[in-house]
Amino acid sequence: MAKVFAKNLSNKQVMATDGTELGILNNIVMDGKTGELEDLIVKPDIGLDTSKYQKDGQYIIVPFESVSAIKDYIVVDKVLAKGLPYDRQ
């Protein structure tokens, strides 16, 4: 994946590979020791069924490993986006 500046990600739409609009990127979780990006914190679209996603308050948590492209949208694999139970500290 090409380099992308963090400032260009602010408020970017997050979309699944099947065209489902998940919501708007709110924040990114980074491992402070390794610098690896771990998760996207997404404000879900009103019509999105969030029951299959990990949640943190009003936001859904999308593992960064599910990101397949970043252009006009942040495109994520729908299956990987649902991730595993959120247990990061």
TrEMBL record:
Alphabetized Pfam families for the sequence: PRC
Organism domain of life: Archaea
Chain ranges of the PRC-barrel domain: 4-78
SUPFAM superfamilies (alphabetical): PRC-barrel domain
Alphabetized InterPro entries for the sequence: PRC-brl_dom, PRC_barrel-like_sf
Gene3D superfamilies reported for this sequence: PRC-barrel domain
Stored PANTHER family: PRC-BARREL DOMAIN PROTEIN (PTHR38137), PRC-BARREL DOMAIN-CONTAINING PROTEIN (PTHR38137:SF2)
UniProt name for this protein: Photosystem reaction center subunit H
Protein's organism: Methanococcoides methylutens
